[in-house]
Every structure is written in structure tokens, then in C-alpha cells.
Design brief:
With 243 residues, this protein is mainly alpha-helical. The protein contains 11 helices and 2 strands; from the N terminus they run βααααααβααααα. The chain has a two-stranded antiparallel sheet. The protein is globular and about 60 Å long. It folds into 2 domains: 118 residues; 107 residues. The two termini are 26 Å apart.
Length: 243
């Protein structure tokens, strides 16, 4: 399983875009790189929106680095972000955008090397692993929908799992770091959702949902950060969701 990072994910996407024909329209370039329908402006915009979320992921990654001066990497990151923001998706040719990439992409690649060398990266999922995780979350949602548990708990779990499902569907853009961040947030909300007062059937369903999140976290995050969270909370939450 190869190591990856938000910085590496962003560099890969922007490098791919930079190498494309500069005379093509901005909309068709983003559609191809981000795997959207080139004729569907709304879909292209949604995918580009996910790309900007990836920029935020990279910024958080850089700020966590153990380096003397994070601005060495934050400045080129912001230059790239501003370059994209200053060119509307609809109208204009790609050459006007990619001209600003060259001097900043090398530093973004160097940033990815440092992130991964400091063991702050994530595991990259194979297409088979991604397919399996998507299938399992679909099966889990179906099981929850068919269950006889309290409607409020059912709605809560489905809503949380759909957030994870969305991160898996947008994996091509945000990569494992996006999945890891969403998983951490969902795990926290499940832990403190008050499931302990529910009936046995509901507790079992919550346990299945929580353990799916644990499995997902372990698949993408080095060391499995949610596992560490659970270990640290054992004294405060003696009743964790059942396995």
C-alpha cells in the first residue's frame, strides 16, 4: 500500500492539468482532470469546489509540519489557489491559468515529500479497496434503513454515513486525506450521540456503523487515529459501541 498526502494529491491533479493543451477551455480541462461531465457546468463547479477543499486540506497539512518556516510552502500554495480563483470556469482558455503553475508546482511536490517523510501522510487506496469500501457502506445503509430501530437514530446514522460515502465518491479529487478527515468527524459524532440509552438492537446497529468507521480509518490513516481516540476515552466512556 503506497503512502500519499493531501499535498501529493493536489500536485498530481494540478500537474495533470498543467500538461494539457493550453488552447482548450478552462471548463473542459477541469471536467477531464476531475472526471466531470464537460457539458454539465454545475457538476464541473461542484468538482472544482472539492478541489478547493483539497487546498484547505493541504494548508492544514503544511501547518502541522515540523519545519522552520512553513511560509516556504504556504506562499506557493496560496499563489496556486489565487491563480485558480482569478480565472472563472466558464469562458477563457487554459493557457491563462497554467502559466502561473510552473514556478509553484515544484515546491508543492517538495512539500509532499516532507509530509510523507515525517510520517504525516495517509495510505492510498487501490481501486479494489475503494470499490469494497463503497459496497460495504451501501450495504450498511440498506441494513440501517430496513431495521426497526428508533427513527431518530436511524436518520442520524444514515446522515453521517452519507458524509463518508460522499468522501469516497470524491476520492479521485480529495484522496485519502479527505476520507480520513470525514471519518474522524463522524466517529466523534457517533461516540457522543447518546446511543448508550438506546435499545439492544439500536446499539448493535450503532456498533456496526462505528466499526465501519474504524475499519475505514485504519485503511487510510497511518496508525489509525480513531483507534487512538478510542483507547484514550476508555476510562471516560466504558461503554463503547459494541463490535
Amino acid at each position: 500500500m503506497s503512502l500519499s498526502s493531501a499535498s501529493r494529491q493536489l500536485h498530481t491533479l494540478l500537474k495533470q492539468a498543467q500538461e494539457m493543451d493550453g488552447q482548450r477551455s478552462i471548463q473542459t480541462i477541469w471536467a477531464e482532470v476531475l472526471e466531470a461531465n464537460p457539458s454539465d457546468y454545475a457538476e464541473v463547479c461542484q468538482k472544482v469546489g472539492q478541489l478547493f477543499v483539497l487546498f484547505d486540506d493541504v494548508e492544514q497539512e503544511i501547518r502541522s509540519l515540523k519545519v522552520t518556516d512553513t511560509d516556504v510552502y504556504l506562499v506557493p500554495l496560496n499563489n496556486l489557489r489565487l491563480s485558480l480563483m482569478s480565472h472563472p470556469i466558464l469562458g477563457g482558455v487554459w493557457e491563462s491559468v497554467r502559466g502561473d503553475f510552473r514556478q509553484n508546482l515544484d515546491l508543492l511536490a517538495a512539500c509532499a515529500d516532507i509530509v510523507e517523510s515525517q510520517n504525516r501522510g495517509v495510505h492510498e487506496l487501490s481501486s479494489e479497496e475503494l470499490k469494497d469500501l463503497r459496497q460495504k457502506i451501501g450495504e450498511l445503509q440498506n441494513e440501517i434503513l430496513k431495521s426497526d430501530i428508533d427513527a431518530e437514530i436511524k436518520a442520524f446514522l444514515i446522515n453521517e454515513l452519507r458524509k463518508i460515502e460522499a468522501s469516497l465518491l470524491n476520492y479521485q479529487i480529495r484522496g485519502s486525506i479527505g476520507v480520513a478527515r470525514v471519518s474522524e468527524e463522524v466517529a466523534g459524532r457517533i461516540l457522543f450521540s447518546g446511543w448508550q440509552g438506546a435499545g439492544t438492537a439500536a446499539q448493535e446497529i450503532v456498533g456496526k456503523a462505528f466499526n465501519y468507521v474504524l475499519t475505514l480509518d485504519k485503511a487510510v490513516r497511518i496508525g489509525g487515529s480513531i483507534h487512538k481516540l478510542v483507547e484514550g476515552l476508555k476510562d471516560y466512556l466504558p461503554l463503547l459501541p459494541p463490535s
